[in-house]
Amino acid sequence: MGTSISSEADEQTELQRSIQRIKLQQAATPKLPLVKVHELLRGNYATYAVLYNDRKSCNCMPQLLGAAYILGATSDQLVDLYEVVSKDLEIWKEDSPSEVTQDDWRSFYGDREYQRGYKDFFDEELVTETNYDWKKVSFRYLLLDDAKLLNGLIGALGQPMMHMAYAFELDSPEIALEALTLVASTYPSYSHYIDTYVKNYPNLLSSGNLRYLENDALVILNNMRDSKEIESLGSLEGNDLDFDRLFDQYSETILKYFYKLNTSDPQKILEDLFHLSSVLLMSSFKNSSKFDLSLLYTLTFAHACHVLSMNFTSTNKVSLASSLWLFMVLSYLSAKMPKILTVPEELTSESSDNATWNEVTRFALASPQRYNVPYLTALRAFKSLSSVRQENDEFYLKGADIFTRKAGTFTIYGKSQ
Predict the structure, then answer these.
(1) Are 282 and 288 within 8 A, CB to CB?
(2) Helix axis angle, 33-47 relative to 61-71, nearest 10°?
(3) Per-residue pLDDT tens digits for 301-340
(4) pLDDT tens digits, one per residue of 166-220
(5) Is the dihedral of CA 140, 261, 241, 297 positive or negative?
(6) What is the spatial distance between Cα 342 and Cα 331, in angstroms, rounded to a whole number?
(7) pTM of the model
(8) DSSP run (H or E) holding 31
(9) DSSP label of 109
């Protein structure tokens, strides 16, 4: 009897030891980057608010982790990024004035105080209405009411658009729900211009109007720069970009140039704008030896439009093309309309010899700048857009090489910060 009891105790002890050994082995085994990035995304989603710093700033952790992962970061590098950048974020608070429901969810567009209410609302929709199908809930809300929220992705300097793109690239419900929360709570007043453009699209491109439109966006931007219509850009100052302020001061001129582009072939226009976004960023560097933040956001916004254009219908590409074009006009104005250089060799003359994508990405992931979200997301955009037109691949590689080595402080409204 005593022997039996002793034997059972020994077996139990050995079982516990085996379980402990297994746990230790699991803890010692590094998780695959794919597993780790989703673990961190879930942690960010559950812990940190979408908006922080008095709701002025967006939590861009998903974009940082997504870009780093796709660029080849290891699990340890992903954890390092998360631990460092999360120090500046704010833990979720129950701060919505009221609950957001099916009866009133449209009523709080653009009200950042409702970020938690929108998060809870879209959480509930994912579970009860779509059976955890994040793409279904995303398409549903983005395309309701003549795609009002799709057109609103331009708000908050395009952060909702960039979030949604990484949701598709990483197949992440957490990022998708954050994107929906962002677009609803930061919905911009000027997105109705995109609504109107898309609604009137057939009439705008009628045979009678086409002759007044320009096919080349570069020509339009150069005309903006050469005109005397905007002579008070020196009054735009501050540490934060603000497209609403631009519309308050220059709405008539902005819309004039916005409506000037011929978008009858939205796919071609998108591809043209993708490339122009990289040219603008590199031009800002050649003009001042610094990269302009608003033009950097144009590049990352272009990458986001590229990703979404592959997941939405051709009809929705009109929304994406007009959103990217309006974003570009606003960014170019914010950058105080620098001279646009178009000769690839001139733009990339400072590239190192024989640069490769592997070398560029390795350098970036080890750079002190890696904790700066625009740094890695811009590199990701360069690499992604290089695949759109193969003949431009060398330009994107050289541009990315210069950017990763030279990017430090960025300019805002044409001035170093």
Answers:
(1) no
(2) 180
(3) 999 999 999 999 988 999 999 999 999 999 999 998 999 9
(4) 999 999 999 999 999 999 999 999 999 999 999 999 888 887 888 899 999 999 9
(5) positive
(6) 18
(7) 0.90
(8) none
(9) T
